[in-house]
Amino acid sequence: MAKAANAEPDELDRLIRLYWAPMRIFLVATFPNLRNQADQLLQEFAEDRILRKDWLRRADPSRGRFRDFLKASLKNFTLDRLNRFEARHPPVSLSEVEGELLSAQNPSDAFDLQWVRTVLAQTLERMEADCNNPAENQPRRGYIWQMFRLRLLEPALSDAQPVAYDELVQRFELRSPTDASNMLLSAKRIFKMHLNKVIEEYGERDAATLIEVNALAEFIQQLAKRC
């Protein structure tokens, strides 16, 4: 945790940007009545907690995932703000807000799902750009991304039926279904390569984040086992 504790301002800024969307979803799911104040509260949380000296020292990997530490810190920060508001404005009941907290439908799951989407989206963005890079010498490299999208990605994300190999052969003027299958294997390798690079970038920041990203990688890599 020494590296995290001594994080540079640009690293902390990157951490804030990385977690902003998951934190916002968690905040709104936990405190629905604060939807209109979510962005302001997150800004205050970033300034008062994340950017505070030595805040990251509290994220002890032996005590759990960084993601859980972040959610707990954000919830406590928000409750503290609501408590202060209640003290200044008695008509607002903190107990009602806490009731909403208890009745919220899996706000932690909402955070985790958005975090998975964040990692996956960044991986897929890099993969698509790589496959469509005009500097590559492979004339059919762009087909690899399309093959991955039609045969694997869309079925995994939207329950669509995978496009049949015979149709892929006809659409991309391939020699055989085996040719299409080999291109899909190449797509899986490219996907794994970019996913590992994303994980390495996040993991270099601190040990606690590495633990959670590796757990998420296990889930995301299930995509690469499909065909």
Features:
single chain; 227 residues; mainly alpha; 2 domains; 10 helices; 72% helix; 0% strand
3D structure, described in words:
By secondary structure, the protein is mainly alpha-helical. It has 2 domains: 105 residues, no CATH class; 112 residues, no CATH class. Helix content is 72%, strand content 0%. It is built from 10 helices and no strands. The chain starts with a helix and ends in a 7-residue tail after the last helix.
User: What string gives the helices and strands in order?
Assistant: HHHHHHHHHH
**Estimated radius of gyration:** 22 Å
Number of separate helices: 10
- The chain-level structural class is mainly alpha
Head-to-tail CA distance between termini: 39 Å
Low-pLDDT segments: 1-6, 87-104
Rounded average pLDDT: 74
| Shape, principal axes of CA atoms | elongated
How many strand segments? Answer: 0
Number of domains: 2
The biggest sheet, with number of strands, parallel, antiparallel or mixed sense and barrel status, is:
none
The percentage helix is over 70%
Strand content: under 5%
Secondary-structure map:
Blueprint: H1 2-5, H2 9-30, H3 38-50, H4 66-88, H5 94-103, H6 107-131, H7 141-158, H8 165-171, H9 177-203, H10 207-220
How would you briefly describe this protein structure?
The protein is built from ten helices and no strands.
